[in-house]
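Record pair follows.
FIRST:
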Amino acid sequence: MRKIVIIFMFLTALLFAQGCDDPNKFKPKLPVADKVEDVPTFVMENFKLTSTDDGVIKWVFHAKSAQIFEMKKKAYAQVVEIKYMEDANKFSYITADRAELNTDTNDMFMTGNVNLKASSGATLQTEKLTWIDSQKLMKSDEEVTIVKDNNILHGKGFESDVQMKNIQIKKQVKLKAKDFKSENLF
């Protein structure tokens, strides 16, 4: 029995000595950068952020997961849903695969399957969309498709308010209008 203990201690010491020759051998390989500002302060699931103005909810941002970088003043989120409130019963709704939020300015950059259902009834589809909070303005340099009633507007480059009442398409504009009864197609 004593021989087994001595052999075990010898093997343990031998393994420990071999491990000590390389200081990086037991260093954990974490998915973090070398700079402290590149390390997320928080990593969350079911992330929810609400923006208010004098106690009135302006928008609610929900994501399946998010990484908060306090030093960079950024939040990166995945599987995003955003509800922009106009009043208690009227809102526009955006979904996207990913979003980057500036936590100081509340500006957002959304990418991947960006879909907006505006309170006006219009819908927007694009791959990239930027929200400039101080101007209450959405814009994109990508192709966009906007549908309202039976009318389809397609183009490249876009600016509008979140209700999509003041739409501007920059180039390659195509309109398929099927409802001429309406005075305002969009």
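SECOND:
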Amino acid sequence: MQEGTSVPLSYPHRNDDYAYRVPTPPRIVVPPPALTNDAHPDIKLGASKFLPMASDAYANIVSSDPVMEWTYERRREAQMILPYLYLGPMTVAKDEAWMLREGITMVLGVRQKHEFSFKLMDAALRRVHAVGIETQTVDLANNMDLIQAFPHTTEMINSHLSRHHNAMGGLGKVLVFCESGNERSAGVVAAYLMETHQDVDYIKAMQLCQAQRFCVNFDDSMKRLLQGYWDILCAKTSVAAEAMKQSENPCVRSKRGLEREEDEGVDDSMHDDDLERFGGRTFMPFADAPL
């Protein structure tokens, strides 16, 4: 090697290129569902938790293959997600003949504030109300407001179905729509499926919506929103189960309620369990600085 020649430095411990982008959570992948012998998506649903009148289990709610039978024009139509729940765009809400033919008894519009489509949706809702169909709306400042609106939209749907059943003897049918029928309203329907069916998590809810309405768009933000709502539902279920256990057997104390009673002769700063763990140790990872 000649004198004065520089040698490039090498880093044998470096296994991959450095990334300078903002850290992001891992993507949520929604796998395609398994297929039946008829090449239809195999998605089964159990009975609804909140609607006893709809207690019949669905053998296979998806009756067609959306990949093979879907056409571009169908995005302008509404699709049946459940026998009493439809998902579609705003143009369907303006089709009075279709709603009367399908027996729609309530429409739920998911509106985005401060947009031109807000006024257009108002016009569609007035036409729906004029033909005697109940109208409900949920107004959002942005998509992040959906996670707070999900319990309210589920309650509105179930309340209407229950009232219609008590008055007319049938469940009725609800159409959930937004401007395109592919984003915010699809999130509302997916959240409804998670909350009303024990065997549906956020992945299965998105699979069911996509299997019935192939053009729905669950982007990364909406997927994480539904995942977060699913975590909330699981936490509520766990708390309710623990409360039920406590009411049935009040002698059993919860895990957080287990507290060791301190003996009178033990210093307040050192509990029995602390003594058991640290009593025989001589190593001190930290030491107080001298005053």
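COMMENT: The mean pLDDT is 82.
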